[in-house]
Amino acid sequence: MGIQPRLIVTGRESDGRSVFVTDEPADPITVGAIPGSEFYMLWGTEDGTATVGSEPAQPRLWPFFPGTGGTRILFLRWAPESSAPEELGDPEALGAEAAEKLPGLMDVFEPDAPGMHTTDSVDYGICLEGELHLELDDGQEVKLTPGACVVQRGTRHAWHNRSDQPALMCYVLIGADRTS
């Protein structure tokens, strides 16, 4: 069976004592535009500077990509490309479903280059299960296997699962300002 994503969050009581606020399995989000894949949106912080303290924190999960100083952490189980159906369905309906379930995700994808996208973020991607290929804009690729960590620094890229098994990645996204 593979890794089952789970979220554990700590906090403080009013007297300063540390407590577990959340300990629960994460529920997957699926969208027809990326068939067979499962998004586990775990946690995120507001844009700006992260803070800690006694106030009960609520995750900031949307938009999908954080603004400057904001963060997101998610697990993404990538289905094998070989299992994708030939016809995905009506592009407008698929886009509307993705916009509803994962607001902001599809905004960065290039319509004429399937899978290619660029974000204003520093992303740490850690391969937990399976294998995944990271393609850059010039066609160069590297294969990630469990234990590999990618530091994605706002470059144009695409992800491909060329194997016959699902791949599980953990991504930490940190919103960044783009410089020249």
TrEMBL record:
Residues 116-169 form the Cupin type-2 domain. This is Cupin domain-containing protein. InterPro entries: Cupin_2, OryJ/VirC-like, RmlC-like_jellyroll, RmlC_Cupin_sf. It comes from Actinomycetospora straminea. Gene3D superfamilies: Jelly Rolls. Transmembrane segments: none annotated. PANTHER family: CUPIN TYPE-2 DOMAIN-CONTAINING PROTEIN, SLR2101 PROTEIN.
